[in-house]
Amino acid sequence: MKTNVGSQKLSPDCLFCKILAGEIPANRVYEDEFCIGFPDINPQAPTHLLVIPKEHIASQAKALAEHKPLLGHLMSAVADLARMQKLDKGYRVVVNTGDEGGQTVQHLHLHLLGGRPMTWPPG
Predict the structure, then answer these.
(1) Strand, helix or coil for residue 68
(2) Quick one: pLDDT at residue 5?
(3) The domain 3-114 belongs to what CATH superfamily?
(4) Which of 31, 53, 69, 87 could form a disulfide with 91 if both were Cys (CB 3.0 to 4.6 A apart)?
(5) Does the pLDDT value for residue 116 go beyond 50?
(6) What letters, b where the CB count within 10 A reaches 16 and e where it falls short, cover 13-26?
């Protein structure tokens, strides 16, 4: 079952949908009509922000062809947020997908990590 906040589809049991609905507070450092950005509660780098779409999509694996414009917008929003955070030396964008991919919240989200050198392999 999905509910709407404005014109966006939200899932009532989803942590990130509750943040979008204002039921759970978050320090929104970025917001536009399609997504929001806020600090990760368990940061893995000096800068660790999450960017989530205002529409509930459970994971990257659940994204459909109709989501292509939104997916591109999320990447653009991450780039804007990285500039706002002055991550001029570089940053990493991570999308964990599914249990084996490390996804812990079943709502598509992009991790923006920066402020230190990143190592490889990441996992």
Answers:
(1) helix
(2) 41
(3) HIT-like (3.30.428.10)
(4) 87
(5) yes
(6) ebebbbbbbeeeeb
Distances, alpha carbon 34 to alpha carbons 5, 70, 73, 94, in Å: 12, 7, 8, 19
pLDDT digit string (tens) for 38-72? 999 999 999 999 999 999 999 999 999 999 999 99
Written as six digits, the tokens of 41 are 């509660």
Q: Which residue has the tokens 């929003």?
A: 77
Q: Where along the chain do its domains lie? A: 3-114
Nearest to 86 by CA among 31, 36, 29, 33: 29
The CA distance from 97 to 91, in Å, is 20
**Strands (DSSP E) found in the chain:** 3-5, 8-10, 30-31, 35-39, 47-53, 91-94, 110-114
Total-model pTM: 0.91
Cα 50 to Cα 110: distance, rounded to the nearest angstrom: 6
C-alpha angle 109-29-107 in degrees, rounded to nearest 5:
15
Look-up: residue for tokens 């990760």? 40
| 94, 122 Cβ separation under 8 angstroms | yes
